[in-house]
Design goal:
Length: about 270
């Protein structure tokens, strides 16, 4: 039977030191370090984490207020174990922490949806997805060809109107409202948001695979809708696709013999 591994004293000290920095109220200050010096370490690390995470979530901060926001950042620092070494990915780690923890009764029901909505912009800014030049026909026919959504995009669905939430508008659970958004990075690398109705969202979802022509996607969407005037609905569907090209959410069509590159897609719903 192997002997129990003993932790070296210097590692015990490191664990104690790190534990106190993470949560000074619950972990004693390590011996041999003055209170004044330890306070400097505590404040330095907390402020660094706070300043790296907070800019991504300005609306959530305004909704919760500074005291509750600082409490959440402290809880994140003390209990979450980050898996990334990159500073710019800390907001995503914070989002994961919030989605995994049990929410408090005094926190709004929409909070995690709002946090996700605010994080999406950073996620798309950091994405390195792109199409090869030979993948696309920028002037392609959107009816007979397969429309190509911007390679960096997300099609999102939330049970709250997250784009309207702020300090002066905070919906209750009784005021839920299904909200669909297409978020994409345009040709100028700006991240943009388009509010969709359920029909437009379904059409975008059909286009997203890159396997259907514009005609096929519109006809399937209209068939699912059961519209009493299908011819008018079909023309409306094509107008939606053309507008998406105008907004640079659609970049053209895929060339016939090439499969579409994978896109940055995602949804958040219950």
């Amino acid at each position: 039977m192997s002997a129990t591994r003993r932790i070296p004293e210097f590692q015990k000290y490191q664990i104690s030191f790190a534990g106190h920095i993470r949560d000074p109220k619950s972990n004693e200050r390590p011996k041999g370090v003055s209170s004044r010096r330890m306070t400097v370490y505590n404040e330095l690390l907390f402020n660094n984490i706070f300043n790296l995470v907070s800019p991504c979530f300005p609306v959530a901060q305004s909704v919760l207020g500074p005291d509750k926001w600082k409490t959440l950042i402290r809880e994140f620092l003390s209990s979450h174990r980050c898996r990334t070494p990159y500073f710019r990915q800390l907001p995503e780690e914070f989002l994961q922490f919030m989605q995994q923890r049990e929410s408090n009764a005094d926190e709004p029901d929409f909070l995690n949806y709002l946090l996700h909505y605010e994080w999406v912009e950073l996620a798309l800014e950091l994405s390195n997805k792109s199409f090869d030049a030979g993948d696309l026909n920028k002037d392609g026919d959107l009816r007979d060809g397969r429309p190509a959504l911007a390679p960096v995009h997300m099609l999102l669905a939330y049970p709250y109107p997250v784009h309207r939430i702020g300090k002066d508008y905070q919906p209750t659970a009784a005021q839920r409202e299904e909200t669909c958004l297409l978020v994409f990075r345009d040709n100028g690398d700006a991240v943009r948001f388009i509010l969709l109705n359920p029909v437009s969202a379904r059409l975008v979802a059909l286009i997203e695979s890159g396997e259907l022509t514009g005609n096929q996607a519109v006809e399937q969407a209209v068939s699912e809708l059961g519209h009493p005037e299908p011819a008018a609905a079909i023309e409306g569907g094509h107008a939606i696709i053309e507008n998406l090209r105008h907004e640079e959410a659609i970049l053209g069509t895929f060339v016939a013999d090439r499969a579409p590159s994978p896109s940055a897609t995602g949804t958040i719903s219950e």
